[in-house]
Design a protein that fits this description.
This protein starts with a helix and ends in a 7-residue tail after the last helix. The protein has a single domain (about 30-355), classed as Glycoside hydrolase, family 3, N-terminal domain (TIM Barrel). It is globular. By secondary structure, the chain is of the alpha/beta class. About 40% of the residues lie in helices and about 10% in strands.
Length: about 350
């Protein structure tokens, strides 16, 4: 019955009004921006008013000499998010990376909750500890107005030379059962506060020997099918609403494109074989594994056609504006490389999921 309801909603939509194509394209974009107040961020103010679907928040820049970015204090951040929601014609997904340990945007030294690494949590392997920790995190995020967290990581800690997962202590364990157990606790805590969790990075980044922020990552000779197990366990429990892609290349799954841009990976494997029904979000499309190897047009075309619903441009490793990205999508539609129907369908899917956390849709 629930899938019939889902089909009807997707078919006939939730929109209270017909939206322009520009607005619908903006709904499938997730952008980073500069500034700790709307006054400091005129471009994101304009983007939100034009229908931008999601934003991502950072506590600093890649260039460490530039200091703080969007996050300076709990009070400041709460006001920024409130101001952005008040501007938005539709509820806005407000997202942040808050895994714990080395990937923590809300830091203890400026007044936020102390959050240990996933490795620390997995090593302790205590249900009570994890439940208490993640309940506190969910309460903090809810109070700030954050409704979407890029966590938990469900990659496996199976390669000690892995510079981006293992060496940064971002994985709970090499054991998929331990990974799935603590990821589920994290997700349940977020769901209790109407916050989306985004598990990452499909189909598993734990066996890579290099960092996709820096360049092309080929896991053809290192990736193992066991890396799918945490995804499978959580999907089978109907726990997963959003999944983030990995920028890893595996010739045994797709001989041409990395996972983010791969129909074989995102539709044939994740959706058709594993039965995932939720939203797919790309990892940052300015990361060098993508941006140094594919044009912006090819990246947008292949990523959207692969089954991804939301395109992430964090604007930390480059800058792409809403206007530019809307223009790219419209050009691809004109060239018949994308269909307008598919974009509108993705925007409606996003609204379908937003209904789970917002009462105004």
């Amino acid at each position: 019955m629930k899938y019939l309801i889902f089909f009807l909603l997707i078919t006939f939509g939730f929109s209270k009004q017909p939206y322009s194509l520009d607005h619908e394209i903006a709904q499938v974009l997730l952008l980073g921006f500069e500034g700790a107040t709307l006054k400091e961020s005129p471009s994101i103010k304009k983007d939100i008013q034009a229908g931008l679907g999601s934003i991502i928040l950072f506590d600093g820049f890649q260039d460490k000499s530039r200091g703080a970015n969007n996050v300076k204090s709990p009070k400041q951040l709460k006001k920024l998010i409130s101001d952005m929601q008040a501007l938005s014609p539709e509820p806005l997904l407000t997202c942040i990376d808050q895994e714990g340990g080395t990937v923590t945007r809300l830091k203890e030294e400026i007044g936020f909750l102390s959050l240990p690494s996933a490795e620390s949590v997995g090593t302790k392997d205590s249900l009570e500890y994890s439940k208490n920790l993640y309940a506190k995190l969910a309460s903090e995020l809810k109070d700030l107005g954050i409704n979407c967290v890029f966590a938990p990581v469900v990659d496996l800690a199976i390669e000690p030379k892995n510079p981006v997962i293992f060496q940064r202590q971002r994985s709970y364990s090499a054991d998929p059962k331990i990974v799935a157990k603590h990821a589920e606790i994290f997700m349940d805590a977020m769901r209790d506060k109407k916050i989306f969790s985004i598990i990452k990075h499909f189909p598993g980044h734990g066996s890579s020997l290099s960092d996709s922020h820096k360049g092309f990552v080929d896991v053809s000779d290192t990736w193992k099918e066991v890396e799918l197990e945490p995804f499978v366990k959580l999907i089978d429990k109907n726990k997963v609403e959003m999944i983030m892609t990995a920028h890893i290349f595996n010739k045994h799954i797709d001989s041409k494109y990395p996972a983010t841009m791969s129909y074989n990976t995102n539709t044939k494997l994740l959706k058709n074989k594993l039965g995932f029904k939720g939203l797919m979000i790309s990892d940052g499309l300015q990361m060098h594994a993508i941006s140094k190897n594919f044009s912006l047009e090819e990246t947008v075309e292949k990523t959207l056609n692969s089954g991804v619903d939301i395109l992430l441009f964090a604007n930390q490793l480059g800058f792409n504006s809403r206007d530019e990205l809307v223009g790219v999508v419209k050009k691809l539609i004109k060239q018949k490389k994308l269909s307008e129907e598919s974009i509108r369908r993705k925007a409606e899917r996003i609204r379908f999921f937003k209904r789970k956390i917002f009462d105004t849709l």
